[in-house]
Design goal:
Elements (H helix, E strand, L loop, with lengths): L1 H5 L2 H17 L1 H11 L4 H23 L2 H6 L3 E6 L3 E5 H22 L2 H10 L2 H28 L5 H28 L1 H22 L6 H23 L1
Length: 239
C-alpha cells in the first residue's frame, strides 16, 4: 500500500509541491536559526545549524504524527466576555506567545549594542551559550512548524507524503543556511532587513492568534522588494 502510494505520479507531484511549500514557509525559520547561530563561536556554528534544522524536522514530523491532537487545538480553551465574547484556542495561544517571543528576540537583536553582546559572550561558557541558543531555536521551531503543518494538511491527507516532503525540504534548507549566514555576516544591512522581516512575521503570528489573518505573501513581497533595493544600493556604492 505504501509502495503503491509513492509510485503514483500524483504522489510525486504532491511531494514536490509540499517540499516547495515547506521551503517557502521555512524562510523565516531559516533566518531565525541563522541569526542565532551566528552568535556562536565559529567552531560551533556548523553544529548549531545542523541541530537547529534537525529540531525543525523532528518537530514537524512529531506534529504530523499527532494530527488528532492538533485538531483539538482549534477548540476554545480561554474565553472572555467584555464588550463582546472573545475566545482563544490552544493554537491561538501558541501563535500569540510564539509571535511575541519572535518580536522580542528580533527587537532585542536590532537594538542590542555590539559591546553588550561581546561582554555577554565572555560571561557565558561556550557550552552554556550553545544550549541557550538551541533552546531558543527549539521554541520558535514549534511555532513555525505548527503554521507549516497546518498549511500542508490542507493540501494533502497522506501523512507519509508530508513526512517525505518535510525531510526533503530540511535537507535542501541545510545547503542554504551557510550562504545565508555568510551574507548576513558580511553585510550588516541585510541582517537588519532580516530582523525587520522577523518582526513582521512575529506580528502576523500574533494577529493570527487574534483571528486577524494577514497573508504571508504580502510580507514576502515587501521584504523581497527591500532586498532587491539593498542589492542595487550596495552595487552602486561599490562602483
Amino acid at each position: 500500500m505504501l509502495l503503491s502510494l509513492f509510485t503514483s505520479p500524483e504522489a510525486w507531484l504532491a511531494i514536490i509541491t509540499l517540499t516547495l511549500l515547506e521551503i517557502v514557509l521555512g524562510i523565516d525559520n531559516i533566518i531565525f536559526i541563522t541569526l542565532l547561530v551566528n552568535k556562536l563561536p565559529e567552531n560551533l556554528r556548523k553544529k548549531g545549524r545542523t541541530i537547529g534544522l534537525s529540531f525543525a524536522m523532528i518537530t514537524r514530523i512529531g506534529l504530523l504524527s499527532t494530527l488528532s491532537w492538533m485538531a483539538s487545538l482549534t477548540e476554545p480553551v480561554i474565553a472572555f466576555n467584555f464588550i463582546y465574547d472573545i475566545s482563544f484556542s490552544g493554537r491561538d495561544l501558541i501563535l500569540i506567545l510564539g509571535g511575541g517571543f519572535l518580536i522580542y528576540k528580533s527587537l532585542t537583536e536590532l537594538f542590542i549594542s555590539d559591546n553588550s553582546e561581546a561582554s555577554s559572550k565572555h560571561t557565558s561558557t561556550k557550552t552554556h551559550l550553545f544550549w541557550m541558543v538551541m533552546a531558543q531555536i527549539a521554541v520558535i521551531d514549534i511555532v513555525f512548524s505548527l503554521d507549516s503543518i497546518i498549511t500542508a494538511v490542507g493540501l494533502v491527507n497522506e501523512i507519509p507524503l508530508m513526512i517525505c516532503a518535510v525531510v526533503l525540504s530540511v535537507f535542501i534548507m541545510m545547503f542554504a543556511l551557510k550562504p545565508i549566514s555568510d551574507l548576513l555576516e558580511k553585510y550588516p544591512s541585510f541582517k537588519i532587513l532580516a530582523l525587520c522581516f522577523l518582526v513582521l512575521v512575529g506580528s502576523a503570528l500574533v494577529l493570527e492568534g487574534f483571528d486577524i489573518a494577514i497573508a504571508k505573501s504580502y510580507i514576502y513581497v515587501c521584504m523581497g522588494f527591500a532586498v532587491v533595493y539593498e542589492v542595487f544600493r550596495l552595487r552602486s556604492v561599490s562602483e
